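FIELD: query
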Amino acid sequence: LAIGGIFVLGTVAAEYTLPDQHVQRLIQKPLGAAYGKTDYTSRFMFQYFSRIAFVLFMLRFIRTPRQLLWVFVTMLFCIFFAVPSALYNYATATGTDVRALTRLVNWADNANRFAFGLLLGVAFLYYLSANTRAGWVKAVAVAGTLLLIPTILLSASRSVFMGMLILGLLVMLGAFGGGGARSRREILAGML
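FIELD: result
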């Protein structure tokens, strides 16, 4: 919230303190030159306020663990919905910059956002498998994780690769529950 507050304050202050954009463009490029979009403030404002609204919605309407479970399952469905298209695009791509991406859903057209969504899926699957007794849920979680982790690597996102290491460390430390001494050794071996 603090970073968002600084963003909103800076946006308001920029309107009154920075030079006029039309004058600035004439200084930087000659008259008649093609201008690409350089101001993404409205998009970032929309993202900021829509995410605050989403968090408030979650806090207001999700009251029981069962409701939270259904939110997780819905998010996992959305994450898995984007994976086949991304893998198909990766398999059929030509060129030098080949990554697993898809334009099927808006959040998956950027490598970092796509990989972050997949990493959230891995975290959700681990949480579900660690907090359930049903064997079929654990099997689905393992199969889903085995599908998502290579797809994360195919997206070539360095930041999410670091996030995978941090997630593995958090799991190893028992931040999500269900971590014993044996699982810590297995996770450490997998991270190395």
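FIELD: remark
The chain has a mean pLDDT of 77.
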